[in-house]
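Quick one: structure tokens for this chain, please?
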Amino acid sequence: MIYFDAGGGHRASATALKSAAEQQNRPWQMRLVNLRDVLDPADLIRWISGVRVEDLYNLLLKSGITIGTGPMLRMVQMLIRILHLRLVRHLTRYWEESEPDLVVSMVPNFNRAIFEGLRAADVSQGRPETPMVTILTDLADCPPHFWIEPQDQYIVCATATAVEQAISMGHPRRRVFRTSGMIVRPEFYRPVEVIRADERRRLGLDPDLPTGIVMFGSFGSRRMIGIARRIAAARLKTQLIFVCGHNDALRKRLEALPLPFPSHCVGFTREIPFYMHLADYFIGKPGPGSISEALVMGLPVIVERNVRTMVQERFNTDWIVENQIGLVLHSFREIASAVEKMLDQDELLRLRSHVRALENRAAFEIPDILQELISHGEFPSAAFSPDSGATQLVPSFG
């Protein structure tokens, strides 16, 4: 199960899938592989500058510098093409030594190199072709050469749009699978056994005041300060929980703000389900992981889409509008009016009804897909869904 640390979503999805499979007592030996560890010797940028590409990417996220991610992505892809043969050689050696029965990629950009290295290892070892599955950890592809490549493998998609993208690229329908959503950690499905009013009071919040949770990924964002100030200026009857991730400087700045409403700031935490349980709505960037977690917890979302929105996340905003599960703003300068809508009880109930209708269980569905592949190499028990144009398994979980 391959991930990397450019952003937090790929590692989170890999560990969530591993945890779900373990809970289902799957008889597998699952190995999480950081692609960086395999390809580190081929990293020319680090050799020249001393900086890893994903470290630079994460620094940009932490600083909120996300304008121009489209051209930046294409530059990274050009470098990957230049290094392609070198990457394939390193991956071939790795697959020869590890001898996997199944390879599951949860990373973009490198799937061609992963596949070609795997096939070269199969040939050199004289073994049957090892199946490869790519699980998109975005709601849709960002072509070309981002998630989906025209090669003989399997694709797992969270939306009908991603399914259509895979099929239009030539993937047979029986090799494209549609889940009910994105992978979310199993903890988000467990009941939070606390009394909300008591826990809000313990954190210094008003037990009865509508509560928003503000999150911008693993490194937070300076935009959270602007959001706090604008809601404060509007004197809205709400309160906020700020999740700042690894950005301690941001957390301290937020704690120092003289806000007229109750608030609570938290740094990096693995208790996101707990804090979301205390909230009524979500504010953040349209990252697939964060919004999927919020939706599983029943929270309508408020996100922003403009030139600063990362190119691979722009589809997510269209998906939010299409499914009527939140509000998409041109700028967080409009956040006060958006929160005011969330404070309207009828509007909040309407959005929540659409959120509940999603019923995302992807983390528990994907092990069924992988089991079929491990057991049969094909999918004899799968049922075809003409609506999505993809093969869908009928899951057996409770």
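Residues 187-358 form a domain with the Rossmann fold fold (CATH 3.40.50.2000).
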